[in-house]
Amino acid sequence: MTTTNTRAPLSTGSATLLVAEREISTQVRSKAFLISLVVLVAVVVGGIVAMSFFGGDDDQDAVPAAVVGLEPAAAEGLEEAGVEPTTSASMDEAEQLLRDEEVEAIIVSDADSPAGIRVIGLDSEPTEVTQLLAITPTVEVLEESDTDETMRFLVAAAFGAVFMFVGIGSGMMIVQNTIQEKQNRIVEILLAAISARALLGGKILGNSVLALGQAVVLGAAAVVGLLITGQQDMLDILTVPMLWFVLFFIPGFVLIASMFAAGASLVSRQEDSGTVVTPTMMLLMAPYFVVVFFGDNPTAMAIASYVPFSAPVAMPARMFFNEAQWFEPLLALGVLALATLLMTALAAKIYSRSLLQTGQRVSLKAALSSSD
């Protein structure tokens, strides 16, 4: 008796997950992928450490001073002002500490002084201590300083660089794999088992997971860099914009990945890939140049935060500087998600209609007009 083993065809969902798993496992085992990720992590951490080192440290160490006859409440006020008080039992003891250069000055109670204290130096006026104890009035500025403009540029450029480099790296892997499968006729074997849409979905899903993983790793590297340089305040400010960047990154990369895959399906040789991926590359690099040239222009950044290709960069940057209303990121995310759905549907149509056409480059018009 002969038994025939029939195998049920894969569903679209199962096929998509299978292709995604293959994409992820292939790239994770690639030395080029791992080396590039390590290099990017080193650049992020090294850049933060270098900026902290060359930018100087705004936090000053507390200035030591000997204290004689002050009330405990007054001593606490000295600590808040940046003075490290050392209580001395007598003036002789305080003077010895000053002569031994263990303290910068002596602070004693003085009823005749308007401030209620007197500051004593060794051979010159203790200017550093008196400046710390001086009352500083409320200060405001009419124009933004160069430091604020530099911070605006660095934060926006960092978001733009991560989106651009991760997008280019993962997008070009989609292009190379798609063209290689088409050139080697492997795609014909794949399409005999699964649909073109499942193949496209798996490629986009797998590479999106990898791209998101890279973005998270780079974000973690930035957190480590800020922590080891003592920039906890900056980390607290960046936390919410970074979370929004991840939320915008997911549909933003899917949008770009679908365009890369659709473009790659039009050609059969790696040599011809330049003409079909250049438009996508330009759109991917656009957010970086937007923040470089228009990062200090609130109107331009507001417009860019609603444009699908630049929203993943512009909106988190605006949120960092509290320039966006609470509803704006939700609205921009909705616009980006809708654009991603439309582009993915269009890419699926191009991909399925041109994947099996080999030889000369398939024109976009021909791919859209032909049948599946």
From TrEMBL:
Keywords: Membrane, Transmembrane, Transmembrane helix
Domain of life: Bacteria
Compartment annotation: Membrane
Domain ABC-2 type transporter transmembrane: 31-348
Transmembrane segments: 32-54, 153-174, 211-230, 242-264, 276-294, 327-351
Record Pfam families: ABC2_membrane_3
Chief localisation class: membrane
Mode of membrane association: Multi-pass membrane protein
InterPro entries named in the record: ABC2_TM
This protein's name: ABC-2 type transport system permease protein
